[in-house]
Amino acid sequence: MSDAIQIERQGAVTTLRLHDPASMNAMTPTMTRALHAALKAEEKTARAIIIAGSERAFSTGANLKAAVPEKLDGFDVGRTLEQDYNPLMLTIRDLDVPLISACRGAVAGVGVSLALACDLIVAGRSAYFLEAFARIGLIPDGGATWLLNRAVGRVRAMEMMLLAEKIPAPQAHDWGLVTRLAEDDAVEEEAMALAQRLAAGPKRSYALIRQAAWRAADSDFAGALQMERELQKQAGETPEFAEGLAAFQEKRAARFA
């Protein structure tokens, strides 16, 4: 495992921390592959996962010094997306456990994609979100064009991508880009509280909810109804549903294994 990904376990919650202070957690192919491997490994035992950065930055995006050669002739900028970033983002989509991003400081470039691909996004009040690709003649990646359109709508997504201006966390919260706002020094505490709540919940149900939500984003209404019918059958066959129903009938809190 790369030293740039720190793994912290607290009960059934795992925190995966981006850790490269010198670059403010700028992503490299090595870090990306390490995060990918860590997610797959922790998915087997954790019931909720937090992705966090540092006080100064969640991530400042891709580390161009590490990824781009001095001579650009023949260099395919999209290759690292195909080899490293896209597989990571698809793994996040397909993960069986809920994901929370704890965002402090700068959240930029592919760091925005990483944060927004999580199920819940907790941001500190002084954090900001920045899609700065247009400043260097590139386009947003890591699924940002898809994620932003679905999070804030085409018009606001275009504002973020074309103007390449910082979106302060309070504004991001107003837009629906962020789930929870917290004081800067309470971001990870808030994320952990949410993660522990999820960790006590119905694991299989959460996996199916994640699957349904991602698939629904690409479905028409009739398709979403049919998908819900199929996944509901699967959910109804789990011990979690039996326990949840018994708890409801007995007027007590459910105890999910």
Mean pLDDT: 94
Q: Compute the gyration radius: what is it?
A: 19 Å
Largest sheet, spatial ordering of strands: 1-2-3-5-7-10
What's the helix-strand series? EEHEEHHEEHEEHHEHEHHHH
**Sheet bearing the most strands, described?**
6 strands, mixed
CATH class of the largest domain: Alpha Beta
Beta-strand proportion: 15-25%
- The number of strands is 10
Range of helix content: 40-55%
CATH architecture of the largest domain: Alpha-Beta Complex
* CATH H-tier superfamily of the largest domain: 2-enoyl-CoA Hydratase, Chain A, domain 1
Which geometry do the CA atoms define? globular
Distance between the termini: 30 Å
Spans where pLDDT lies below 50 across 5 or more residues: none
Please give the count of helices: 11
What structural category do the secondary elements indicate?
alpha/beta
Total count of domains? 2
| CATH topology (level 3) name of the largest domain | 2-enoyl-CoA Hydratase, Chain A, domain 1
SSE topology:
Elements: E1 5-10, E2 13-18, H1 29-42, E3 48-52, E4 57-59, H2 64-67, H3 79-94, E5 99-103, E6 106-108, H4 110-116, E7 120-124, E8 128-130, H5 144-152, H6 154-163, E9 167-168, H7 169-175, E10 180-182, H8 187-199, H9 203-216, H10 221-236, H11 239-249
Parallel strand pairs: 2-3, 3-5, 4-6, 5-7, 6-8, 7-10
Antiparallel strand pairs: 1-2, 8-9
Helix pairs in contact: 1-3, 4-5, 5-6, 9-10
